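---------- Forwarded message ----------

FYI, see the Amidohydrolase record below. Original note from H. follows.
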Amino acid sequence: MPAETPNPFVAFRRELHRFPELSGQEFATRQRIRAFVSAFRPDRMTDVAQTGLLLQYGTDSHGPITLIRADIDALPIQEVNAFAHKSQTEGVSHKCGHDGHAAILARLAAHLAEKPVRQGRVYLLFQPAEETGQGAPAVLNDPAFADLRPDRVFALHNLPGFPVGTIVCKPGPFTSAVQSLIVTFRGRVSHSAEPEKGVNPAFLMANFILKSRQFTTTDPRSDDFALITPVFTTLGEKSYGISAGYGEVHLTLRTRTSQKMERLTSQLLTTLSILSVGTGIGIETAITEVFYANQNHPDAFAEIRDRAHQLGFAFTEKPEPFKWGEDFGLFTQHHPGAMFGIGNGENSPALHNDDYDFNDDLIEPAARLFLALLDRHQA
């Protein structure tokens, strides 16, 4: 019997998996995507956000404008899998499934080549740097994106722990607001036998970390959900005759909404200010890796639910948002739309685990759901 012809979209996904690139470095990834999707005849292809790619289908300037986004960056994780498409880049791998998200968008491009956009325009965005939260603002601030003003924006994320192909969504916040707070403490070094002649920030750092716990509400079902996770600290040097004079505390914060994130951050900074009074320790703070909550518009949620049912897909309305962040949230802060999830398998390793892999069986149904959402706006 002749050998079975491999699915080109699965092969494309696995090619991306073999050659992952970190956030902001996706130059070769973009070239691979460009080479593959060129066969699907977009009306226009535009480089965006330094390492991203924007495809346009349709040229009608008066009809609806829909944006569908997939992320394309990988993570600094050493892969432990031994399959044929394992990462060829030491210490870097696609452990969040962005290779699969890109393959879904490529499959959608193929559908649009076969079924041209009749009204308005459709934009397919292959977005870089999602993992650092820098990709979405880079796209929104790119002059090439400035005049798009989409009427609807959609995105998905694969979901380990859910049955394969199950669509998961909810109105309102779908993913949490997430950001990291960096606090530096500048005192003065001294001999460890004479700590009174220096200013050691250790006890202030410890007090701040302990005090921060009073602002946590860890129940994921609560509207006041707030999670504060210490992720990194440093203090002084490994020199036992020296009392430390410098330290850092890094916290990652998670809340249900971006408004609650502002309140939590304010509470932490106020506490820090009160604790540091009279200590002689200089305090500097910085915010990094900001992810706005994905705010699913009720109409966009209803479209996803209805189209999933129409296609015969299993559908689950999640009662509370996911605790992880996703930078597509910045798009939903500016444009009505929604993000949904699709089950990667109940026994799938979790996202960001070193043995995770995207389930190729999701490529076709996810692309079909996106196509159905576009058909809704073409009606």
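H. also flagged this: The domain at 8-175+293-378 is CATH 3.40.630.10 (Aminopeptidase).
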